[in-house]
Amino acid sequence: MSPQSNAEPQRLAKRLAAQLPCSRSDAENYIAGGWVRVDGLVVEEPMERVRDDQSVQLDPRAKLEPLASMTLIWHKPATRVLPDEPLLPDALAAKWFTQSNRFKGDRSGVRPLKAHLHKLLPVSPLGNKASGLMVFTQNPSVARKMTDDAGQLEHEWLADVAADPELEDEARRDAVLKSLGKALFFDGWAVPSARASWQSELRLRLAIKGNQPGQVAHLCERAGLQLSGLRRLRLGRISLAGLPVGEWRYLLPYERF
Question: pLDDT at position 210, please?
Protein backbone atom coordinates (compact mmCIF):
# COMPACT_ATOMS: atom_id res chain seq x y z
CA MET A 1 0.00 0.00 0.00
CA SER A 2 1.47 3.36 -1.01
CA PRO A 3 2.15 6.04 1.64
CA GLN A 4 -0.20 8.38 -0.19
CA SER A 5 -3.17 6.01 0.16
CA ASN A 6 -2.67 6.09 3.95
CA ALA A 7 -2.90 9.89 4.03
CA GLU A 8 -5.51 11.46 6.27
CA PRO A 9 -8.59 12.83 4.46
CA GLN A 10 -8.23 16.54 3.79
CA ARG A 11 -10.66 19.39 3.54
CA LEU A 12 -12.35 19.68 0.18
CA ALA A 13 -11.43 23.36 -0.15
CA LYS A 14 -7.74 22.56 0.38
CA ARG A 15 -7.86 19.69 -2.12
CA LEU A 16 -9.61 21.79 -4.77
CA ALA A 17 -7.27 24.75 -4.27
CA ALA A 18 -4.25 22.52 -4.91
CA GLN A 19 -5.90 20.72 -7.82
CA LEU A 20 -6.96 23.75 -9.88
CA PRO A 21 -4.81 25.59 -8.59
CA CYS A 22 -6.50 28.58 -6.96
CA SER A 23 -6.67 30.33 -3.61
CA ARG A 24 -8.40 28.63 -0.68
CA SER A 25 -10.97 31.44 -0.66
CA ASP A 26 -11.81 30.89 -4.34
CA ALA A 27 -12.08 27.16 -3.76
CA GLU A 28 -14.56 27.76 -0.91
CA ASN A 29 -16.65 30.01 -3.18
CA TYR A 30 -16.75 27.36 -5.91
CA ILE A 31 -17.86 24.73 -3.39
CA ALA A 32 -20.50 26.87 -1.67
CA GLY A 33 -21.78 27.82 -5.13
CA GLY A 34 -22.61 24.18 -5.88
CA TRP A 35 -20.01 23.83 -8.64
CA VAL A 36 -17.95 20.95 -7.17
CA ARG A 37 -18.64 17.22 -7.30
CA VAL A 38 -17.03 14.50 -5.22
CA ASP A 39 -17.38 11.08 -6.84
CA GLY A 40 -20.11 12.57 -9.04
CA LEU A 41 -22.18 14.10 -6.22
CA VAL A 42 -22.44 17.84 -5.57
CA VAL A 43 -20.90 18.81 -2.23
CA GLU A 44 -21.49 22.34 -0.91
CA GLU A 45 -19.50 22.23 2.34
CA PRO A 46 -15.89 23.45 1.98
CA MET A 47 -15.00 21.68 5.26
CA GLU A 48 -16.08 18.27 3.92
CA ARG A 49 -13.26 15.72 4.21
CA VAL A 50 -12.20 13.82 1.09
CA ARG A 51 -9.78 10.96 0.58
CA ASP A 52 -7.03 10.85 -2.02
CA ASP A 53 -8.83 8.09 -3.92
CA GLN A 54 -11.99 10.18 -4.32
CA SER A 55 -12.63 12.12 -7.51
CA VAL A 56 -13.03 15.91 -7.17
CA GLN A 57 -14.30 17.78 -10.23
CA LEU A 58 -15.16 21.41 -10.92
CA ASP A 59 -18.18 21.97 -13.16
CA PRO A 60 -16.98 23.44 -16.48
CA ARG A 61 -19.80 26.02 -16.21
CA ALA A 62 -18.52 27.20 -12.83
CA LYS A 63 -18.56 30.94 -12.18
CA LEU A 64 -16.38 32.51 -9.54
CA GLU A 65 -18.73 35.10 -8.10
CA PRO A 66 -19.93 36.08 -4.63
CA LEU A 67 -23.06 34.33 -3.43
CA ALA A 68 -26.05 36.65 -3.65
CA SER A 69 -28.09 37.33 -0.53
CA MET A 70 -31.46 35.64 -0.96
CA THR A 71 -35.00 36.45 0.15
CA LEU A 72 -37.59 33.67 0.40
CA ILE A 73 -41.37 34.01 0.23
CA TRP A 74 -43.27 31.30 2.12
CA HIS A 75 -46.93 30.41 2.64
CA LYS A 76 -46.81 29.52 6.32
CA PRO A 77 -49.29 26.84 7.45
CA ALA A 78 -51.31 27.70 10.56
CA THR A 79 -49.89 24.60 12.25
CA ARG A 80 -46.23 25.62 11.83
CA VAL A 81 -44.63 27.01 14.98
CA LEU A 82 -41.74 29.44 14.57
CA PRO A 83 -38.77 29.11 16.92
CA ASP A 84 -38.24 31.90 19.41
CA GLU A 85 -34.86 32.88 17.92
CA PRO A 86 -33.67 35.94 15.95
CA LEU A 87 -32.55 33.78 13.00
CA LEU A 88 -34.11 30.62 11.62
CA PRO A 89 -31.80 27.70 12.53
CA ASP A 90 -30.11 26.26 9.44
CA ALA A 91 -31.35 22.74 10.22
CA LEU A 92 -34.95 23.95 10.40
CA ALA A 93 -34.57 25.98 7.20
CA ALA A 94 -33.27 22.88 5.41
CA LYS A 95 -36.34 20.98 6.61
CA TRP A 96 -38.88 23.67 5.66
CA PHE A 97 -37.42 24.86 2.34
CA THR A 98 -36.70 21.83 0.20
CA GLN A 99 -36.75 21.26 -3.53
CA SER A 100 -39.89 19.13 -3.14
CA ASN A 101 -41.96 22.00 -1.69
CA ARG A 102 -40.46 24.76 -3.82
CA PHE A 103 -43.26 26.46 -5.78
CA LYS A 104 -43.37 25.04 -9.30
CA GLY A 105 -44.27 28.50 -10.56
CA ASP A 106 -41.03 30.01 -9.21
CA ARG A 107 -39.71 32.09 -12.13
CA SER A 108 -36.47 33.23 -10.46
CA GLY A 109 -34.24 30.73 -12.25
CA VAL A 110 -32.14 30.49 -9.08
CA ARG A 111 -30.26 27.25 -8.46
CA PRO A 112 -31.12 26.33 -4.85
CA LEU A 113 -28.05 26.11 -2.61
CA LYS A 114 -27.55 25.23 1.03
CA ALA A 115 -25.94 28.65 1.45
CA HIS A 116 -29.34 30.26 0.67
CA LEU A 117 -30.71 28.75 3.90
CA HIS A 118 -27.98 30.12 6.15
CA LYS A 119 -28.77 32.91 8.60
CA LEU A 120 -32.31 33.58 7.37
CA LEU A 121 -33.99 36.45 9.20
CA PRO A 122 -37.79 36.24 9.55
CA VAL A 123 -39.16 39.75 8.90
CA SER A 124 -42.68 40.78 9.97
CA PRO A 125 -43.22 37.32 11.49
CA LEU A 126 -46.64 35.78 11.94
CA GLY A 127 -48.10 34.45 15.16
CA ASN A 128 -47.93 30.70 15.58
CA LYS A 129 -51.67 30.26 14.92
CA ALA A 130 -51.69 32.56 11.87
CA SER A 131 -51.02 31.45 8.31
CA GLY A 132 -50.09 33.14 5.05
CA LEU A 133 -47.29 35.22 3.63
CA MET A 134 -43.97 35.19 5.46
CA VAL A 135 -40.63 36.58 4.39
CA PHE A 136 -37.15 35.29 5.29
CA THR A 137 -34.11 37.20 4.10
CA GLN A 138 -30.32 37.26 4.12
CA ASN A 139 -30.34 40.67 2.43
CA PRO A 140 -29.49 43.57 4.77
CA SER A 141 -31.28 46.10 2.54
CA VAL A 142 -34.51 44.06 2.62
CA ALA A 143 -34.22 43.70 6.39
CA ARG A 144 -33.69 47.47 6.78
CA LYS A 145 -36.65 48.22 4.52
CA MET A 146 -38.92 46.00 6.57
CA THR A 147 -37.70 47.58 9.80
CA ASP A 148 -37.35 51.26 8.88
CA ASP A 149 -40.61 51.38 6.91
CA ALA A 150 -42.53 48.90 9.08
CA GLY A 151 -45.18 51.44 10.00
CA GLN A 152 -45.82 52.32 6.33
CA LEU A 153 -46.02 48.79 4.93
CA GLU A 154 -49.59 47.69 4.36
CA HIS A 155 -50.59 44.18 5.42
CA GLU A 156 -53.65 42.57 3.87
CA TRP A 157 -55.42 39.94 5.95
CA LEU A 158 -58.29 37.49 5.80
CA ALA A 159 -59.80 37.21 9.26
CA ASP A 160 -62.25 34.45 10.16
CA VAL A 161 -64.54 35.19 13.11
CA ALA A 162 -66.66 32.98 15.35
CA ALA A 163 -70.34 32.55 14.50
CA ASP A 164 -72.66 35.07 16.15
CA PRO A 165 -76.43 35.37 15.52
CA GLU A 166 -76.11 39.16 15.73
CA LEU A 167 -73.98 39.16 12.57
CA GLU A 168 -77.05 38.18 10.57
CA ASP A 169 -78.25 41.76 11.10
CA GLU A 170 -77.04 44.16 8.38
CA ALA A 171 -76.81 47.08 10.80
CA ARG A 172 -74.55 45.04 13.09
CA ARG A 173 -72.29 44.11 10.20
CA ASP A 174 -72.03 47.78 9.18
CA ALA A 175 -71.19 48.69 12.78
CA VAL A 176 -68.32 46.18 12.71
CA LEU A 177 -66.83 47.82 9.62
CA LYS A 178 -67.11 51.26 11.22
CA SER A 179 -65.36 50.02 14.36
CA LEU A 180 -62.55 48.44 12.35
CA GLY A 181 -62.14 51.70 10.45
CA LYS A 182 -61.39 53.72 13.59
CA ALA A 183 -57.79 54.43 14.57
CA LEU A 184 -56.70 53.35 18.05
CA PHE A 185 -53.80 53.00 20.41
CA PHE A 186 -52.71 49.42 20.93
CA ASP A 187 -49.89 48.26 23.20
CA GLY A 188 -48.54 51.81 23.32
CA TRP A 189 -48.63 52.25 19.54
CA ALA A 190 -50.88 54.42 17.42
CA VAL A 191 -52.48 51.91 15.05
CA PRO A 192 -53.84 53.27 11.74
CA SER A 193 -57.41 52.56 10.80
CA ALA A 194 -58.14 49.41 8.84
CA ARG A 195 -59.88 49.26 5.48
CA ALA A 196 -62.29 46.39 5.95
CA SER A 197 -64.97 44.55 4.02
CA TRP A 198 -67.02 41.42 4.51
CA GLN A 199 -66.00 38.57 2.21
CA SER A 200 -68.60 36.16 3.57
CA GLU A 201 -70.80 35.81 6.64
CA LEU A 202 -67.85 35.01 8.91
CA ARG A 203 -64.85 36.31 6.97
CA LEU A 204 -63.41 39.80 6.80
CA ARG A 205 -60.75 41.26 4.54
CA LEU A 206 -58.60 43.93 6.20
CA ALA A 207 -55.78 46.16 5.00
CA ILE A 208 -53.74 47.81 7.77
CA LYS A 209 -50.41 49.61 7.82
CA GLY A 210 -47.99 48.21 10.36
CA ASN A 211 -47.99 44.85 12.08
CA GLN A 212 -48.03 44.88 15.85
CA PRO A 213 -48.43 41.34 17.25
CA GLY A 214 -52.05 40.82 18.26
CA GLN A 215 -53.20 43.95 16.42
CA VAL A 216 -55.85 42.28 14.25
CA ALA A 217 -57.20 40.24 17.15
CA HIS A 218 -57.48 43.44 19.21
CA LEU A 219 -59.34 45.25 16.41
CA CYS A 220 -61.77 42.36 16.12
CA GLU A 221 -62.28 42.21 19.88
CA ARG A 222 -62.97 45.94 19.98
CA ALA A 223 -65.63 45.40 17.30
CA GLY A 224 -67.24 42.65 19.39
CA LEU A 225 -65.87 39.77 17.33
CA GLN A 226 -63.89 36.68 18.27
CA LEU A 227 -61.06 35.92 15.87
CA SER A 228 -60.92 32.24 14.90
CA GLY A 229 -58.41 32.29 12.04
CA LEU A 230 -55.99 34.73 10.42
CA ARG A 231 -54.15 34.62 7.10
CA ARG A 232 -51.88 37.28 5.61
CA LEU A 233 -52.40 37.69 1.87
CA ARG A 234 -50.04 40.57 1.14
CA LEU A 235 -47.13 42.48 2.62
CA GLY A 236 -46.49 45.78 0.88
CA ARG A 237 -46.48 45.00 -2.83
CA ILE A 238 -45.70 41.30 -2.41
CA SER A 239 -48.65 38.90 -2.28
CA LEU A 240 -49.21 35.16 -2.02
CA ALA A 241 -50.38 35.21 -5.65
CA GLY A 242 -51.35 31.55 -5.83
CA LEU A 243 -48.51 30.24 -3.67
CA PRO A 244 -49.90 27.01 -2.13
CA VAL A 245 -49.84 26.42 1.63
CA GLY A 246 -46.45 25.16 2.78
CA GLU A 247 -44.64 26.07 -0.44
CA TRP A 248 -41.94 28.72 -0.98
CA ARG A 249 -40.22 30.64 -3.73
CA TYR A 250 -37.38 33.11 -4.23
CA LEU A 251 -38.11 36.82 -4.35
CA LEU A 252 -37.72 37.93 -7.98
CA PRO A 253 -35.02 40.51 -8.78
CA TYR A 254 -37.54 43.19 -9.79
CA GLU A 255 -39.94 42.64 -6.87
CA ARG A 256 -40.06 45.34 -4.21
CA PHE A 257 -41.96 45.54 -0.95
Answer: 83
